[in-house]
Amino acid sequence: MQTSPPRSSSGRRDRKKQQTKDALIAAALRLVDERGLERVTVEEISAVVDVSPRTFFNYFTGKDEALIGDPLVDAEEFRARLAALPAEIPVIGALLLALAPAVAQIQADRELWLIRLRVIEQNPGLLPALMARGAVAEREFVAAVAERAGLTPQDAYPQVVAAATGAAFRVAMIRWAAGDGVPPLSDCVHEAFGVLATGLADPTNEEV
C-alpha cells in the first residue's frame, strides 16, 4: 500500500515548484521588456531559468500567461479576510483592509510589477487574457461582497461594488506605474478607494 509522503517533503516540493514558476515569470517579463514580445521564445525564457521548454509548459499555456502571472488575490483567503472584519466597517473600508496583503506584496515586488505593467501597455495583444483574468477576479469579488452583505451574487449591490472597486484599483495601479512606483501603491489605492467612499461626491476647491 502506498503511503503519502511526509508533509515537510511535500512542502519543500511545493516551494520548489513555486520558485521555478516565479523565476520563469521574471525571466519572461525581463526578456519581453528588453526585446519585445515577438522576439522572445519559450525556449529562451526556459534557458534563463535552466529548465526545459517542457517544464515551462507544465506551468503555463504560453508566453501570455507567464507575462500576466498569478492572480493578484487568492479568492479563498480574500473572502475569509473580508468575512472576519467587523460588520460595522463600511464595505469600501472593509475591501481596502482585505486587499492590504495583496497591495503589500505588489509593493514588495515593485520592480517586476512595473515591468509587467509596462509590458502590458506596450503589447495590446495581452489584453484579452488580462480581461479574462479580470472577469474571474470580479466574479470572486461579487461573491465576497454578496456574502458580507447578506445578498446573492445576482443582486445589483455586490455587482456594482465589485465593478467600482475593480476600476478604482486599476486606476491606482496606473497612477502608481506612471510615477515609477512613487508614491507607494498603498497611497494610490487609499486615494482611489477614498473617492468611492465619498459616494463620488463632487470635489471641492478650498480657497487658499
TrEMBL record:
Alphabetical list of SUPFAM superfamilies matching this protein: Homeodomain-like (SSF46689)
All residue ranges annotated as the HTH tetR-type domain in the record: 18-78
Family annotation (PROSITE patterns): HTH_TETR_1, HTH_TETR_2
Top-level taxon of origin: Bacteria
Coiled-coil annotated spans: none
DNA-binding feature ranges: 41-60
Pfam families: TetR_C_14, TetR_N
Region (Disordered): 1-20
Recorded GO MF terms: DNA-binding transcription factor activity; transcription cis-regulatory region binding
UniProt-recorded name of the protein: Putative TetR-family transcriptional regulator
